[in-house]
Every structure is written in C-alpha cells, then in structure tokens.
Amino acid sequence: MAAAPPKASFAGRAVTVLSAVGRMDGVMLVAVAALSVIGALLVWSSTRTWASGSTGLVKKHILNLAIGAVLAGVAATVNYRTLRAYAPLAYGLTLVGLFLVITPLGETVNGAHSWIMLGGGFAFQPSEFAKLGLVLMLAMLLARPAKGTDRPRAPDVGIALVIAAFTMGLVMLQPDLGTTMVIGVITVGALVVAGVRKRWIAALFLAVIGGAVAVWFMDVLEPYQIARFTAFLNPASDPRGAGYNSTQALIAVGSGQVFGKGLFEGGQTTGRFVPEQHTDFIFTVVGEEFGFLGSVTVVALLGTILVRGTRIARECDDRFGTLAAGTIVCWLAFQAFINIGMTVGIMPITGLPLPFVSYGGTATFANMIAIGLLQAIHMREKRF
C-alpha cells in the first residue's frame, strides 16, 4: 500500500500563498482599492445627513466591500480553466435567481421588481450575478473554434445568441432596462472578442433595433422609463419632473469647478437635491466635492482597471480565458461609461451603479468576483 504523500509544512503553504499573491496584477488591485476607498468616503458624505446614525450606510458599504474582497480572493484562487466545465451550472443558478425574482418572492425597489429581500436590511439582486453567469457561458460556447479556423462554430454562435436573448427577456420582465443593456453589451463584446464574422454582428445589431422598437410600441417599459428617454432628449422641457435628476446632476458637477468644494462641503449633496446620490448618481458627489481633478482621478483609476484587464485578455494563451477576460472588460467599461455619461448629460438615465464606487451589495460582490476572475486568468498565463 502506497504511503500517503507528506503534508505541506506551514512554511511551504505560506510560500505558495505568497508566490500566488506575487503573481497578481498589483496595479489593478491598487486601482480597485483606491476606488473602493474613494467610494466609501463619497457614500459617507452623501448619506451622513439622513442615514440612520449618520454612519449606518457607510458601515454597511464597508462590510459589503470586505465581503467582496473575500469573494475576489476566492475567485482568484480558482483555476479558471476548470470553470469552463462548470459554466452551465453557474449560468443555470443565475437563471433560477432570475425566475425567483419575478415570483411573489421578488420585491420592487425604485420601480424595478429586481430584488429578493433576505432580512436584516440585506437584499439580493439576481440580475447582477446573471452578468457573471452569462460571461462564463458565452466564453464556454465561443471558445471552441470551427475546424481549420480561429472563429467559433456557427451553431455555437446561434446557441449563444439564444441564451443571451433569453437572459435579456427575463431581466426585461422586471423591468430593468439598464441591466438589459449591459447584458446586450456583454453579448456583443463576447462575439467581437471571439472574432465572429461581421454578418453575425450586423444581424445582432438589427435584432437589437427591432427589439427596441418592439419594446417601445408594446408598452413593456414603465412610464418613468419612457420619461427618462424623453427628458434626455430635452431636459429643459420638464426641469421639475422627468428632467429634474439630470438638471440637478449637472448643477452639482459644475459647481465643483476645478478643485471641488471639499469632502462633506457640497451643498447639492448635503441638501439631497440629486436623488440616489449614493448609488446611481454618486459621480455628482465626485464632481461637486472633488472637482474636475477628482473626477479625472476616478476616470483614470477606472481606465487603469480596463487597460490592465485588456492586457490580461490579450496575453492569455487560452481562448476561454481570453473570452472571459475580454467580456468582463466590455461589461465594466460600458457600465462605467453609462453611469458617468448620464451624470454629465450625454446618456439617458438608466439606473446603473458606478463599478467599485457606488453603494451596493450584490453589484459590489459581482464586480469584485469579476476582478478575481481577471486575476485568476492573469496568474495562470503561460509565462508564469
């Protein structure tokens, strides 16, 4: 009978852990940590005048960040190649969550039936994890190239489009237009990274236009969602109604000028003139209290994460890893662009949080797990 292999010593395990940490993308981690700290300060500033105990929400936010950091660490330790086999399971679990939320178990928050209440002030938003599940599922489907080419097989592309459309349909039932848009971008990003033929992209583009027209004329959207689009086209037409948020957001950002008014010194923030300033409109706090320089800093930190993520996707020698990393970058880039864009008036209001900055639980966890997956892919590149 063969002897059992000797157990690794504590020192040996410590060296293994330190070696793994040393292989992480430190620049990305520093950027994520900096945004998290800035976000916590902004959440504190935007909630201290009305939240219970003045620090209640920021403490909860810090707890969410800590849990998110643990989840990122766990994701980074996983051999991402094994995730390819479990992608259908991960995607299936997210579908269960999307189905549950449209049952009586779901709760409506800010007009969207997107939440499952867990008690104790905590809530769960399945659509955030649906982004992760879809990323893994699309990467698995599109990773296998057709014979003699570096493009995915046509049947796999067709299945990927059906899966994405099904996911978008479930999210639109809530209805959550912002997350639906993100899922659409995740799908397009995966197809582009996979190198599908242009006719597939053109067909998808036409399908999106057709779907948007159908959604508009079939009264799927809630009245407040339609009002957001009309207000985007002409905010001055209803400055105290549908155009109120965008008008106040521009005032807050512009009032910060170059250097800002200082932390806790923003009049728009203190007076709560901009709704949801700790979540969807947190960039208005950046503009008012940290000014143009602070806003540029936040954008630069987000850009650093995206550039490092793109580098990880480009240097990965495995198609599944390249697809997963590239699609995650598309997801985070689009969501950041939409959030900042609606704050400065160049995009319609859609209710998407700013990654790593906005207050949130499920969104924070999903974003941190995405960073963990990027680190897992980076640590297992062939050059190491």
Short structural summary:
This protein has 384 residues and is mainly alpha-helical. The protein has helices at residues 10-22, 26-47, 56-77, 80-101, 126-142, 154-172, 177-194, 198-217, 223-233, 244-255, 267-270, 282-315, 319-343, 362-379, and strands at residues 106-109, 112-119, 122-124.
Describe it.
With 384 residues, the protein is mainly alpha-helical. The protein has 14 helices and three strands. It has a three-stranded antiparallel beta sheet, covered by helices on one side. A hairpin with a 2-residue loop joins β1 and β2 (112-119). It is globular and about 60 Å long.
Q: Poorly predicted ranges (pLDDT <50, ≥5 residues)?
A: none
Give the spatial strand order of the biggest sheet.
1-2-3
Mean pLDDT: 84
Strand proportion: under 5%
Query: How many H/I helices?
Result: 14
Shape call: globular
**Order of helix and strand elements from N to C terminus:** HHHHEEEHHHHHHHHHH
Helix content: 55-70%
| Structure class | mainly alpha
- Compute the number of strand runs: 3
How would a crystallographer describe the biggest sheet?
3 strands, antiparallel
Query: For the CA atoms, what is the radius of gyration?
Result: 22 Å
Distance between the termini: 36 Å
